[in-house]
């Protein structure tokens, strides 16, 4: 049976999270006076990302709340025992600078336009609905997706097969009728494949060029390749005439 819907990851798939995070944090560090001779901007950015990854893993494992992982990211980064209010205030200042750098990848709108008439669309993210709904609205694409599902509300996160199947259930489609597009070879790529979806792993910058593709996912370097992978009767970059 043909693929009838595409479920999308958000961060670093639709939304250029890495660039926004780096630009926002670089601006934030300078504004907060947190740079000194002992740590370069690049090292501070790497440290922020490492802390973010560790705290997010705690959240994904159910060890801490969504708000808690944000606060702990700040406390570890600044090396101070901040109160919840102090940590929230610090993070909110960073978030304002981070949001100022938000942007979709340039291949996103063309592929959404190309597949608009031939496929249904939804989102599955290891975040919260509040965060991703706001992000998609701000980026002007929320109306492109029938449903937005996130780990915080589902109670389980990718690569758990239940997360992918919940997205299929929301669309009332079987897994083999749904494609999943994400940027992480294991969390997105292998997870979607093992759940029975057509798994598409986007590796835009080739950073994983030496990584063996997990069993199952199709690897692409640009969303321009997606319609061909889906077998869509459409021309990339133009509205579909599929009837």
Folded structure, characterized:
This protein has a six-stranded parallel β-sheet, sandwiched between helices. Residues 233-243 have low confidence and may be disordered. With 243 residues, the chain is an alpha/beta fold. The protein is 47% helix and 11% strand.
Tell me the layout of helices and strands.
Blueprint: E1 5-8, H1 17-32, H2 41-60, H3 66-78, H4 84-99, H5 108-115, E2 120-125, H6 129-138, E3 148-150, H7 151-154, H8 161-171, E4 178-182, H9 185-194, E5 198-202, E6 218-220, H10 226-230
Parallel strand pairs: 1-2, 1-4, 2-3, 4-5, 5-6
Question: TL;DR of this structure?
Answer:
This protein is of the alpha/beta class. It has helices spanning 17-32, 41-60, 66-78, 84-99, 108-115, 129-138, 151-154, 161-171, 185-194, 226-230; strands spanning 5-8, 120-125, 148-150, 178-182, 198-202, 218-220. Helices cover 47% and strands 11% of the residues.
Structural class: alpha/beta
Order of helix and strand elements from N to C terminus: EHHHHHEHEHHEHEEH
- In total, how many beta strands? 6
Instruction: Report the mean per-residue pLDDT as an integer.
Output: 89
The tally of helices reads: 10
Rg of Cα set: 19 Å
Percent of residues in helices comes to: 40-55%
Strand content: 5-15%
Features of the shown structure:
disordered C terminus; globular; 243 residues
